[in-house]
Design a protein that fits this description.
The relative contact order is 0.15. The strands form 4 sheets. The protein has a 5-stranded parallel β-sheet, sandwiched between helices. Strands 1-2 form a two-stranded antiparallel sheet. Helix 1 crosses helix 2. The chain contains 6 helices and 11 strands. The longest helix has 17 residues. It is α/β, with parallel strands linked by helices. It starts with 5 loop residues before the first strand and ends in a 5-residue tail after the last helix.
Length: about 210
């Protein structure tokens, strides 16, 4: 019964609103996980996320975790150089981004920033692009794919890949203001156990 409850009540900067149920979140996560596996992303392969604040963002994190691919979240206000540095450091195999995003009344051209960053990041073989702003963007054949088109071909269910507790779940980078950004790896077991404990003991989450 819980699958029909709201997992996210979301409002975008322009005022658009969406309610995403747990079932919809589960489906989006599995389809993206399927697309990543079809691209050859395997457990241990890093994925960079350069996305606006949309419900697909947490789904992308969950999809990476489902296939055992450590992800790194890069703030969508960072430059192409900052994005490239983080991709290079973790040797990311794929990037998940959007055509653009909205911030303070302006449209941020995220795909253009990714294109510039990928000139210096040969490890990236695939880019998945969400349609957020609807603006025209450059799509490189064989590398760039639209998420909505991939979703129509993706499997509705992907078996979660079992990993060791010490397997890296995600890599969080320092700001880089005082030197080269330093990546801090958070392990799957430690992070998830602590997150669950916080939900239960601190926030007392219940239906």
């Amino acid at each position: 019964w819980r699958k029909n409850k709201a997992a996210f009540l979301w409002e975008g900067e322009p005022g658009d609103r969406r309610t995403v149920t747990y079932q919809e979140l589960f489906q989006t996560t599995n389809k993206l996980a399927s697309a990543l596996q079809d691209f050859g992303v395997r457990a241990g392969d890093a994925v960079a996320l350069y996305l606006p604040l949309i419900p697909e963002f947490p789904a992308a994190m969950l999809a990476c975790a489902r296939v055992g691919a450590p992800f790194t979240v890069v703030f969508s206000g960072f430059s192409s150089k900052a994005l490239a540095e983080r991709i290079q450091d973790c040797d990311a195999r794929a990037v998940i981004t959007a055509d653009g995003g909205f911030r303070r009344g302006k449209t941020i051209k995220l795909k253009a920033v990714v294109d510039e960053a990928l000139k210096d990041t040969p490890s990236v073989r695939h880019t998945i692009v969400f349609r957020r702003t609807g603006e025209q963007v450059s799509m490189q054949e064989s590398r760039d794919r639209w998420w909505d088109e991939l979703a129509t071909q993706a499997s509705a269910y992907v078996d979660p890949v079992p990993v060791e507790a010490s397997h890296p779940l995600y890599i969080l980078y320092t700001s880089g203001k005082t030197g080269k950004p330093k990546g801090v790896a958070h392990s799957t077991g430690g992070y998830l156990v602590h997150a669950l404990a916080t939900q239960v003991w601190v926030f007392d989450v219940r239906d």
